[in-house]
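As agreed, record passed on underneath.
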Amino acid sequence: MITVSGGALRPGQSRLDELTSTAKIVKSIVPTMMANGFNGIFLVATNPCDIITWQVWQLSGLPRSQVLGTGVWLDTTRLRRLLAQELEIGAQSIDAFILGEHGDTQFPVWSHSSVYGTPIADLYQQRTGLPLDREAMADKVRKLGFEIYAGKGCTEYGVAGTIAEICRNIFTGSHRALAVSCILDGEYGVSGAAAGVPAVLAQGGVKQIIELQLAGEEQAKFSQSIAVIKANIARLP
């Protein structure tokens, strides 16, 4: 079941501003589905993705492996594409992830970003002769969706491709790791929230959450992101 319910963003709004209206819609749908015997996988693609993923899990009562959100996978693919353009190398050769909220507190995990074992920052320096401006790159990825939305009033192709890729990996049981929104129960020292983390996908949904060893600054950013997610979970009707 792919959940895409929700309203359109208005100028100046963030994804978190959609919470109240979207949560009411989800609350009217999920209990009815469960009462009719649904026992499949929920893939949440509506915003704010991590908070709604948590809400769907709570309302459904399903195992956490069967509830996930598109999370930061679209942001991750955008990061890889931007790096690929800068490095003049295929995006499929880049190993890099965004973690945390699908929103303003997301961040790239630079300590685990590489091209066939060569750190991204080192390769960037070699290829361009310049140091990689990590904050500028992270900010560009963070704002890219809003730039697209401002230009044409929607971002349907990016999220549609993300949904299709996640579904394909579940249906085929690929056991590929994608950065999706997962219900955390002790991973990364977090419980009581859903957040974007690398997870192995199989036909039953989330087979395994991969715990990366984060650098000190990355851990602080992840904690900040979790705090924002939990604060908004507390706002759920």
